[in-house]
Design a protein that fits this description.
The chain is built from three helices and 52 strands. It is mostly beta strands. The strands form twelve sheets. The chain has a six-stranded mixed sheet, with no helix packed on it. Strands 46, 47, 49, 50, 51 and 52 form a six-stranded antiparallel sheet that branches. A five-stranded mixed sheet has the order 2-9-8-4-5, covered by helices on one side. The chain is flat. InterPro entries: FN3_dom, FN3_sf, Ig-like_dom, Ig-like_dom_sf, Ig-like_fold, Ig_I-set, Ig_sub, Ig_sub2. Keywords: Immunoglobulin domain, Repeat. Residues 53-140, 142-236, 250-305, 335-452 form the Ig-like domain. This is Myosin-binding protein C, cardiac-type.
Length: 685
Amino acid sequence: MHMNTDPDVDVWNILSHAPASEYEKIAFQYGITDLRGMLKRLKKMKKEEKKSEAFLKKLDPAYQVLKGHKIKLAVEVANEDVEVKWFKNGQEIQKSGSKYIFESVGNMRYLTINHCSLADDAAYTCVVGDEKCTTELFVTEPPVTIVKNLEDQMVMKGERVELECEVSEEGATVKWEKDGVELTRDESLKYRFKKDGCKHMLIINEASKEDGGHYKVKTNGGESVAELLVQEKELEIYQSIADLTVKAKDQAVFKCEVSDENVRGTWYKNGVEVKPDNRTNISHIGRIHKLTIDEVKPEDEGDYTFVPDGYAFNLSAKLNFLEVKIDYVPRQDPPKIHLDCMGRTADSTIIVVAGNKLRLDVPITGDPAPTVIWTKGEKASSVRPDGEENAGHSACWTLNDGEVITEGDGRVHVESTKGHCIFTIEGAERQDEGVYSVVVRNPAGEDTADINVKVVDVPDPPQAPKILSLGEDSCIVQWETPHFDGGEPIIGYVLERKKLRSYRWMRLNFDPYPETTYEARRMIEGMTYEMRVYAVNSIGMSHHSPASQPFVPVAPTSEPIGLHVEDISDTSITLKWRAPERVGAAELEGYGVEYCKEGTDEWVPAIQGLTERSSMTIKNLSTGDKLLFRVRAYNMAGPSPPAVLAQPVTIREIMQRPKIWLPRNLRQTLIKKVGESVNIMIPFQ
């Protein structure tokens, strides 16, 4: 089919020579919406072609024009004085307005149709007397482009997936592919296709591992690709339950936090399921599960376990019942700190996770009730012989008969009950780590004790990772360990990547990766990416590192081809070659030329840097040396395999180039009978 608006595309000719199996593909490519009607109209036109006396040149069988453009239909008549009439679908076209323009120039007759719309898609006829010629005009819409690309997605197995793009025209036809295979409506049980104006969506209700791959949406004017990663569901433990030591009448709280707020679970004591009652409460709010036991009794002591529903593991901790026995002592009994009742020694360290509450509950005795002094840093000193007290260095908190006399940080609370002094910090921070001293005094004497407190936290984020090398669909990334590990050893790292202009980061590993060098794969060559890293210890995961410098996965080019010697002298040589057959997604940066003496492997660059030309003259060589030469092409990914001359070249001038003198009798065809000998003498110099 002739197309006046674009003479390079003859859709009629393409359809005429294409097999029927290719019709739908051609229709999609050139924006033909009514393929069956078009083929029917074209077939009819072919049958009507015949000789004419009135027309020297008839209308072409068919024309094609883009919506909104104009088209000129032309015929050449035998009689330049004859009048012609133009018809559309059998109705004569009248001269009115600027829609249709009729022209008569010599033997040529023209009909121009301005601002073509889909209503102008019709059969047009030019009539001269009793003769006529007819053509079909096909009005097609401009190519549909993709204005909002697909985004990479990572989902868990069983989750719903929506891949969405936006195109330039409402009601446009698009095709979806997965890993190069077209997705059809026949697979509606698996995939669902949805249109909403200019938006097109591919929906997978319950993603499986097999659904992972590269998905492509195509229009007749563009395409977009995104990667879908489907991961098995793994429940992460953000906070495990911890052992508790609780006194009678106190409250015991077991608490854990998991990654999925929809996961339920069951609590067990010594293997028997725990049921709620007037002292026992079980709660599940978001990702946090709690078991609370009020007014703890000795029979509450035991092993407590939380089992998430549907997962083959559990979280366990022990509840220890602490029974403090204080023997009756006469009045004026010196104060005493009983750390041994807490199961601790002077060298014990209390570990608290940053952000959690630090609670130091110390049993004490003494009559009358002693004054309690808490200090952090240097110990509060004893009373000097002159009766004056040494001022404790750093923070200091004092209680007398349960009343707070001095108090420091607003996060700190101190209290005293019968037989106990309690020191609490809300939301422990790193600077709260250190040695805490408690001094108890009454008129009968004093006692002191030190408690070591260690605050552990998630690690600091690593520095921005660096890209060491690139491949066609991969890269090697490296990073430094964090400056601070949070007080606990680093278990490993979690990596993420994203496309440069995307907002969605995709996790590359779920289990912590123990090394600081990682090979990331399954990227698209020529696409720009960024990487970032998280550090993980037993407490949790750090904030993410800054993003790496943007990078593009590319492969080196293939080797240059056709390397040969163009010219040679006593001190120089000229080499020529052609560009590699495969350059890849990255731009060719140039060529590196090297040489080495025969029998050695020390390659010497012919020039510093690269040359963009495909030839080079290497000067200042030693006469008589036998040298090997090689050329490598360079792009962003580095050097290609080398193109090497097959034989060493001796550096010396060629006085006279070889020449063949072909005798006149050999310039004609030689004819010999079978069995005769053939002896050809060819002189050369």
